[in-house]
């Protein structure tokens, strides 16, 4: 609609202009500056079309005030599109049109300056505008205080930021401005993030987002991406970062788009997508330069150099190339320092130091690292760990190993303290990615020396830090329980539609949305703030010596090529180099494939024969390569394997030399020692046997096991629902489930077992007020596991152990239903006879007839 086409009565004119202006502000608040600007232009056109002067605008002052308000809104939208010159021009025009609008003009000018990166000038302008706005317009006051609070955040003045943001929320509430209340609540969450309270930040942001009927998309997504990136949840951070990039790009929000591109580039870096990270950072640098924000362009260039350094790492580079990278980083460090960005300048100095190390110039690298300054507690964790890494590499290059390893130790201790703040397994395990390079350096250095005591220390510091944290017991959460119930129903409906050949995109989107909500809610729980230090070799040996069964711990670890084993008993310890990891990994995959084949129904006899021969050959090779070398250091007692990833889910009880021998698997030696010598006897504290759908013989298996234990509960058929299972869990007792399951590689607590009303997730069990001590998952392969960088194990078994369950017995490959049932009957007979879980499982596996029973005892075997 153009001004020429508008034919309205004079009484409609003000309402029309006010409506257009209100819509423009709403579009701007939602992050759509191009649409907002178009509406401002229409409002001005309507106003100018009233050439004769309406009755409601019969005073020039009224007309001038309305025109100035439109111009002020227009100026802010121009700045959102990156056109700072037109923004300033619109403000100048507004001031000449109506000088009485000076407070609003000053506030908007401050916001335009802030978007241009002129933080000092913007702060001065806000300080000038706020007193006048307190007397004038609470809505404009709220906006000004929100943005001044943002400037304080960026400068690290968190107390001032919180005060401004809290006042902004009150002003927005007084003005009836729901969007302003939302943004203030969101920004208070961001202040929590800057203060180090990541769970609290996510909780506040989630509450703010849900409180508004039609919340903005881009900025909340960008801030969530920043928090999740800091927590190490890289996949989730990338998802929110991409949402922000798309939203800002679609709405031509060129002042916010570069920030989103930088966050997206940072997630690319942690995912190993170095080329894409460089491309995005370069795009952000050019956009910032184009819109006249040189400081933001410098920060984008820093991310670009980080990506270049990561791409260079581990590859052959000429000294000339490395020195050129060092010079560019040093120049950037100087520019960042001159711009008043010392923490970012320190990162650039570290990049220069690393490049000089690559160039073979340790003296120059030392000078560059010294310029970065000491490790300060108020800088981000990633920067602190980066300083520790470069400092450690420098000391090790100078053959000062104790000093180098001290930097590694202190960095990993910082990481453990950081992880301890989280009450979410996702966030605890995700944060390990920040220390992966430090952990590799410490362990690589220890392995080169060959000392068992040193190797154990660095293995425990590098692997599964979350296993040294208190068990995660999130509080009971009614909303989470309701969402999980909705997710169960939606999952069944979506699967039914897919099986029928009629996939339902709406249902599938609902499943994805519900899963996202469950994870987001779990991230808001805080942790204990404490982390157990790794056990020393002497402490481990004392615990083993005190156990009359005489156990042996074998910790397996591998890099890209080499595989190692650390053997510990009550009498001694030894380190052994084993075969190449790619070869061993291939054998493990072959075993898993053969087991899956043998578990399938109705296999032709010739195929079955070949499969059995292939399995036995692969198991014999693994037995020889993993155990022959270490056998002389082992006792005759139980074996405790400390491993993660594929090595943890190898069916150890099927290796020829371990058949009939008790074996338990833990993710770390420290975790394995928690229950050494402690009699479990969970079955004496109550038993619940459950059978899920579509498991032939599952009901009979559950009934037989329930009949073996006095007073045991039994849930089969339609009675075996998630609600019923959670309501009857024996506290500290034993839960036996004969049901199919699903292993979720990316999110361990979404691994599930299939019940009558849908999947029962790890998320269901973790916050339940009663929790079993011993869980048996007999008819599925949810014992499978993956690991995140930092050696953090993922999978349902790992999730249950982190929730406080002591022992999980589960399949690590597909298992025939009849084999699972017969094996479990023997297992429970041995438990009732007084055997511990590892002994009972070893006996049951050894006596299994027909197809093999690939099951492991995870956690405590005693």
TrEMBL record:
Signal peptide: none annotated. Coiled coil: none annotated. SUPFAM superfamilies: TPR-like. Residues 622-844 form the CHAT domain. InterPro entries: CHAT_dom, TPR-like_helical_dom_sf, TPR_rpt. This is CHAT domain-containing protein. It comes from Nakamurella panacisegetis.
């Amino acid at each position: 609609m153009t001004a020429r086409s508008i034919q309205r009565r004079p009484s409609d004119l003000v309402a029309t202009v006010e409506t257009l202006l209100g819509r423009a502000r709403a579009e701007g608040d939602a992050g759509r500056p191009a649409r907002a600007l178009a509406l401002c232009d229409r409002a001005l056109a309507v106003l100018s079309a009233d050439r004769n002067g309406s009755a409601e605008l019969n005073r020039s002052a009224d007309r001038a005030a309305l025109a100035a308000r439109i111009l002020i809104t227009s100026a802010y939208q121009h700045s959102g599109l990156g056109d700072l010159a037109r923004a300033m021009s619109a403000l100048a025009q507004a001031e000449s049109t109506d000088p009485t609008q000076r407070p609003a003009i000053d506030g908007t000018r401050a916001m335009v300056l802030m978007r241009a990166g002129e933080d000092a000038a913007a702060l001065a302008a806000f300080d000038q505008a706020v007193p006048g706005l307190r007397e004038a317009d609470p809505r404009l006051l709220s906006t000004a205080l929100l943005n001044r609070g943002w400037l304080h955040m960026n400068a690290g003045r968190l107390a001032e930021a919180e005060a401004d943001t809290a006042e902004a929320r009150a002003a927005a509430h007084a003005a009836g401005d729901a969007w302003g209340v939302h943004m203030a609540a969101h920004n208070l969450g961001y202040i929590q993030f800057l203060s180090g309270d990541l769970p609290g930040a996510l909780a506040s942001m989630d509450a703010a987002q849900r409180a508004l009927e039609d919340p903005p998309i881009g900025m909340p997504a960008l801030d969530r991406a920043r928090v999740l990136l800091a927590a190490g949840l890289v996949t989730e951070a990338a998802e929110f970062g991409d949402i922000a990039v798309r939203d800002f790009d679609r709405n031509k929000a060129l002042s916010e788009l570069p920030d989103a591109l930088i966050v997206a580039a940072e997630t690319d870096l942690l995912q190993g997508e170095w080329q894409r990270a460089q491309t995005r950072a370069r795009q952000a640098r050019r956009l910032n330069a184009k819109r006249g924000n040189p400081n933001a362009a410098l920060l984008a260039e820093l991310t670009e150099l980080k990506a270049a350094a990561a791409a260079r790492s581990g590859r052959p580079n000429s000294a000339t190339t490395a020195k050129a990278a060092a010079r560019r980083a040093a120049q950037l460090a100087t520019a960042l320092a001159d711009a008043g960005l010392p923490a970012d300048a320190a990162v650039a100095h570290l990049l220069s130091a690393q490049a000089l190390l690559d160039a073979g110039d340790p003296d120059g690298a030392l000078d560059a690292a010294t310029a970065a300054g000491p490790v300060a507690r108020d800088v981000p964790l990633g920067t602190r760990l980066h300083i520790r890494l470069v400092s450690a590499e420098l000391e090790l290059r100078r053959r000062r190993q104790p000093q180098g390893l001290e930097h590694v130790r202190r960095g990993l201790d910082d990481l453990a303290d950081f992880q301890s703040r989280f009450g979410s397994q996702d966030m605890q395990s995700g944060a390990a990615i920040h220390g992966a390079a430090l952990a590799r350096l410490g362990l690589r250095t220890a392995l080169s020396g060959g000392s068992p005591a040193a190797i154990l220390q660095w293995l425990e510091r590098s692997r599964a830090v979350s296993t040294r944290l208190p068990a995660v017991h999130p509080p009971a959460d009614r909303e989470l329980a309701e969402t999980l119930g909705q997710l169960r129903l939606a999952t069944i409906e979506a699967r039914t539609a897919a099986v029928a050949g009629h996939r339902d995109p709406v249902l599938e989107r609902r499943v994805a949305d519900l899963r996202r909500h469950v994870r987001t809610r779990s991230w808001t729980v805080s942790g204990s703030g404490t982390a157990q230090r790794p056990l020393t070799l002497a402490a481990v040996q004392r615990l083993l010596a005190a156990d009359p069964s005489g156990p042996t711990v074998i910790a397996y670890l591998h890099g890209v090529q080499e595989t190692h084993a650390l053997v510990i008993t009550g009498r001694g310890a030894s380190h052994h180099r084993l075969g190449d990891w790619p070869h061993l990994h291939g054998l493990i995959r072959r075993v898993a494939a053969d087991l899956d084949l043998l578990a399938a129904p109705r296999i032709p006899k010739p195929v079955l024969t070949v499969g059995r021969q292939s399995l036995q050959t692969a198991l014999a090779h693994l037995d020889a390569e993993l155990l022959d070398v270490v056998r002389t250091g082992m006792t005759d007692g139980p074996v405790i394997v400390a491993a993660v990833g594929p090595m943890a889910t190898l069916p150890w009880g099927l290796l020829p030399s371990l058949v009939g021998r008790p074996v338990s698997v833990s993710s770390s030696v420290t975790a394995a020692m928690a229950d050494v010598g402690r009699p479990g006897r969970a079955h004496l504290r109550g038993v619940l046997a459950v059978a899920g759908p579509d498991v032939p013989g599952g009901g009979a298996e559950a009934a037989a096991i329930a009949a073996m234990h006095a007073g045991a509960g039994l849930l089969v058929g339609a009675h075996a629902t998630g609600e019923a299972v959670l309501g009857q869990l024996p506290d500290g007792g034993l839960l036996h489930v004969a049901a199919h399951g699903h292993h979720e590689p990316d999110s361990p607590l979404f691994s599930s077992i299939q019940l009558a009303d849908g999947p029962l997730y790890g998320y269901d069990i973790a916050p339940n007020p009663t929790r079993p001590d011993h869980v048996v998952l007999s008819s599925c392969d949810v014992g499978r596991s993956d690991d995140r960088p930092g050696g953090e194990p993922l999978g349902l078994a790992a999730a249950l152990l982190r929730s406080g369950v002591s022992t999980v017995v589960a399949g690590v490959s597909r298992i025939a239903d009849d084999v699972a049932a017969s094996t479990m009957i023997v297992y429970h007979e041995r438990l009732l006879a007084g055997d511990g879980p590892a002994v009972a499982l070893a006996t049951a596996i050894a006596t299994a007839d027909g197809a093999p029973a690939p099951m492991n005892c995870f956690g405590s075997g005693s």
